[in-house]
């Protein structure tokens, strides 16, 4: 039984129709599949398997309530059944490669009238429609949010010094439930660590919620070393009795996560402690305690796993 769907257009996280898919998501992550994607004049894309030529970037979604999920997606995509001449899209099955290298058979909604695509649509360079619309199709995008849990909580610090203050709208302090704050992202030098978050049922991370622009995300990509050092995830946060989703957050790539105690640099310690007063107790005390534990290791002859 097929349990996954590959989405490459407005159903992706942060885009206009993601709310249709959201109730049926069991798991979601970045993925790719062979084929081509075209931008249509109607403001949405069309996929074509195209004999395996090219590559399309999107998200692989593991579904719950599969029959209900497919019914909702079929309605959105104008799919009425196998071989139906009235289909706008056909629901086909294709192998999809997840970010961890797994190859999964997944449903994909492919444009029914393949012969019309070359004349009707514009090929999307690189096969990444999200990136394509970021630079000129704001009408398909939702407001974009970013959750900072480390030094980027300091709105008046490096963000301002680097000239990006106007691209970050400070909204307030929010809570990300089901995650925990760690200092276990190893620096490229291997000598100290940076902040990271990891899933932890029953825990929570407090940080700053921003509304951001395209330029802000580009800036963050560079600052966080995306995609090598940190990867992107989209999460749900709560603030003032309101839920925000999808919210961009950067999570350390597995190859840069370490166990045991490692030092933080003096500069990074100061940056984190500067923003600590924004955070509520008792989280604030725990946050500072973790920083000071790592700070004491500076100058130690040995550190790391024990």
UniProtKB/TrEMBL annotation:
<keyword id="KW-0808">Transferase</keyword>
<dbReference type="InterPro" id="IPR039126">
    <property type="entry name" value="GGACT"/>
</dbReference>
<comment type="similarity">
    <text>Belongs to the gamma-glutamylcyclotransferase family.</text>
</comment>
<protein>
    <recommendedName>
        <fullName>Gamma-glutamylcyclotransferase family protein</fullName>
    </recommendedName>
</protein>
<dbReference type="Pfam" id="PF06094">
    <property type="entry name" value="GGACT"/>
</dbReference>
<dbReference type="GO" id="GO:0005829">
    <property type="term" value="C:cytosol"/>
</dbReference>
<dbReference type="GO" id="GO:0061929">
    <property type="term" value="F:gamma-glutamylaminecyclotransferase activity"/>
</dbReference>
<dbReference type="GO" id="GO:0016740">
    <property type="term" value="F:transferase activity"/>
</dbReference>
<feature type="active site" description="Proton acceptor">
    <location>
        <position position="77"/>
    </location>
</feature>
<dbReference type="InterPro" id="IPR036568">
    <property type="entry name" value="GGCT-like_sf"/>
</dbReference>
<dbReference type="InterPro" id="IPR009288">
    <property type="entry name" value="AIG2-like_dom"/>
</dbReference>
<dbReference type="InterPro" id="IPR013024">
    <property type="entry name" value="GGCT-like"/>
</dbReference>
<feature type="domain" description="Gamma-glutamylcyclotransferase AIG2-like">
    <location>
        <begin position="146"/>
        <end position="261"/>
    </location>
</feature>
<feature type="domain" description="Gamma-glutamylcyclotransferase AIG2-like">
    <location>
        <begin position="5"/>
        <end position="130"/>
    </location>
</feature>
């Amino acid at each position: 039984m097929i349990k996954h769907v590959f989405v490459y257009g407005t159903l992706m996280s942060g885009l206009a129709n993601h709310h249709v898919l959201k109730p049926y998501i069991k798991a979601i992550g970045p993925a790719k599949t062979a084929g081509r994607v075209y931008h249509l004049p109607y403001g949405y894309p069309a996929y074509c398997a195209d004999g395996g030529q090219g590559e399309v970037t999107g998200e692989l979604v593991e579904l719950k309530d599969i029959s209900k999920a497919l019914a909702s997606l079929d309605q959105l995509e104008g799919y009425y059944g196998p071989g139906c001449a009235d289909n706008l899209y056909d629901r086909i099955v294709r192998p999809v490669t997840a970010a961890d290298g797994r190859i999964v058979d997944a449903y994909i909604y492919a444009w029914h009238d393949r012969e019309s695509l070359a004349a009707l649509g514009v090929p999307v360079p690189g096969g990444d429609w999200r990136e394509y619309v970021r630079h000129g199709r704001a009408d398909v995008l939702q407001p974009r949010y970013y959750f900072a849990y480390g030094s980027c909580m300091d709105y008046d610090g490096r963000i301002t010094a680097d000239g990006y203050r106007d691209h970050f709208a400070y909204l307030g302090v929010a809570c990300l439930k089901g995650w925990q704050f760690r200092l276990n992202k190893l620096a490229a030098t291997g000598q100290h660590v940076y902040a990271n978050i990891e899933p932890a049922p029953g825990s929570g991370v407090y940080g700053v919620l921003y509304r951001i622009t395209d330029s802000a995300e580009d800036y963050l990509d560079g600052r966080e070393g995306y995609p090598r050092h940190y990867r992107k995830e989209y999460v749900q946060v709560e603030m003032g009795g309101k839920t925000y989703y999808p919210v961009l957050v950067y999570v350390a790539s597995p190859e840069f996560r370490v166990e045991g105690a490692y030092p933080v640099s003096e500069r990074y310690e100061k940056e984190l402690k500067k923003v600590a007063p924004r955070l509520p107790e008792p989280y604030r005390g725990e946050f500072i305690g973790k920083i000071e534990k790592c700070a004491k290791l500076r100058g130690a002859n040995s550190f790391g796993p024990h």
